[in-house]
Design a protein that fits this description.
alpha/beta, 179 residues, 18% strand, seven-stranded mixed beta sheet, globular
Length: 179
């Protein structure tokens, strides 16, 4: 009976510790720049259509969450997809979802703070981040992305940057329009 109680308490302690780590990771993510809020597939499709996404191009999602944009871009638009996500639990979920969808070979999710990384070349960049983080990223987008990159922002837009297309809360920008 004592052995059972000890095992039970160890399992309970481990479970509580794991739950605490998951909660803490989401809290840190929210404090760093954006809480996780998923993007429905209907909006993802609208974002990629607005971006005039083409097969063979690369889409980069900054703050990729569980990979909705990455997976749909790879599966339905035949794009290479790169996501940046600070939360390690969401990165694991993305990798599992990409494997399950059969697009793991075209989906890559990387860790790190998107303000501190060097952005790889991509034809399309998607953003669904809070306004202060979008504003912090603006100089980085201008400095590091190729001139022809198309940027799609959901809800929180690039202030003082002319957009070439709009669909509800989605706005499409071209880097070349601010040079």
């Amino acid at each position: 009976m004592i052995a059972f109680l000890i095992v039970f308490l160890l399992v309970l302690a481990g479970t509580l510790a794991a739950i605490g780590l998951v909660i803490a990771s989401f809290g840190v993510t929210a404090l760093w720049g954006a809480p996780f809020v998923g993007t429905p597939a209907t909006i993802v499709r609208r974002m990629l259509v607005l971006a005039e996404a083409k097969a063979g191009e690369t889409v980069m999602d900054l703050g990729s969450g569980t990979g909705a944009i990455l997976i749909l871009a790879a599966k339905e638009f035949q794009m290479k997809a790169i996501g940046y996500e600070i939360n390690p639990f969401l990165r694991v979920i993305t990798r599992l979802k990409a494997w399950h969808a059969g697009v793991a070979d075209r989906v890559e999710v990387r860790g790190g703070n998107i303000v501190g990384i060097t952005l790889p070349e991509a034809e399309v960049v998607t953003l669904f981040l809070l306004e202060p983080l979008v504003e912090r990223l603006r100089p980085k987008l201008i400095a590091e992305l190729p001139e022809t990159t198309r940027i799609i922002a959901r809800d929180f837009h690039l202030k003082h940057w002319p957009h070439y297309a709009e669909d509800g809360w989605l706005r499409a920008y071209r880097k070349q329009d601010v040079l």
